[in-house]
Amino acid sequence: MNAGMRSRRAQLTIALVALVLGFLSIVQLRAQAGGAGLGNLSTQDLTTLIANLNQRNGQLSSEVTALSAQVRALQQARARGDSAAGDLRADLTRTRLWAGLDPVTGRGVVVECAGPLTADEANDLLNELRVAGAEALSVESVRVVTGTVVAGPPGGLSVENAALPDPFRVTAIGNSINLTAALTRVGGIVSRLQVTSPAVRLTVTPSDAVVVPATDRSLLPADGRPRL
Amino acid sequence: MSGEGARPGRALRELWGRVRRVPGWQFTLAAALLVLGFLMTAQAGAEPSRVQYTSQERPPLVETATQLQAQQDALKAQILDLRAQVEQLEASSAGSDALVTSLNDELQGARLAAGLVDLQGPGVVVQLEDSTQAVPPGAAPGDYLVGAADLRTVVDELWLDGGEAIAINGERVTAISGITDIGSSILLNGTYLQPPYQVVAIGPADLYDRLMASAGFASFVRARVEAYGIRLGAGSLDTAVVPAYAGAVALGYARPLESAAPGGPAAASPAASTRAGSPVAATPPGRPAGSARP
Fold it and tell me: pTM surpassing 0.80?
């Protein structure tokens, strides 16, 4: 009986120690793992990331405010028994412009691309403009919508089966100062191409009013269906 | 003192005998306590470095970034919820009105075109992960990580092969979605993407075969997977799901080109073109935008 008690106490002690041990191991592992990918970033990159997240969250907050106002307007129209046709039309106009279904105009930049650009360099340029906040883009007369990609060999580029001339023009609507700065900054695409493709020349011209056409495509999914 | 030379052997034997009488559980306990002590020391040892980090203002930054991400997720959920409310109110507003019905039909089409609707259909998934190869001396470590350019290449390839809706880690790729690097992290639509990167595309049933057969994808595999060991996985999906864009649909600079009316374009767009120093390819006036259906 004495021996039995001793072994039970032993088991309890071991169980307790194992418990604390397991707990501490996990704490230690967690501490070492840190914030996963974020922990690997330098202080400077973290600051840039935070600035980006902040900016994005500001845009999302504005969208929440706008949508809340839209909900209230629709509810009031219903309460009064008014037609909501005006609200619907405003929503439709905005959505169509944003999607690329209607032509748009506004401040922006025109980028003239001369020389033997690769398709990748052209798509890189489009991406840089998007990152810099472009609201609407076109390559020559083709509106850039989902699925619009520049393809083909240098000298034989095309977009949506339309051959691109040399030089060809990329037009972007947005804050022309930001767009220009993003392209022409040190390490931006203009200076990168000067090094990697000296025969290529990009000329960025800010403008108070550029025009970006509507897409020719319907943009209605053919293979996908709305998920209910 | 003189007899001591003979004693160590006996003492050792005695000690060994005593050790053999010790119950086994005590050894287990001793071993566990040893590891415990080691871990507690390690834990305590980890503290000073964390304090040191604090003085470098790193963990507060990581914490801020994490909080902002959580805030972003909440805002996106709110946007999706409000959009559902708007859609429901619009669809049920003054129901009998033929105008409202047709506006609602148009709105539904515009939302689909804008990527504001969850889609499902046949498709593919492409997963990219950082290389696990050791970086040789003198090589650039960044080459061994998945970068924004890699994701952009895969997305562009999927578009060229017939993809019609794409999301990366659940974030929808729209007409004006930019993908960019910040250090070793990647942002899409200003949203931080946590590795591994999963690109999901809806498209024709043979999208996977088209991707595998495309020269562009083959050269991507050579340049990144074979040369640097970027880990790539791809598969066909019977039902791929691409979520709706949960961001802002706001235009701060772009406004409708009202001048499609007679006489309008001559007044508005050529002036714009002159300022830009080039005849900007304008829309043929009067074309019913978006009416073309291939």
Answer: no
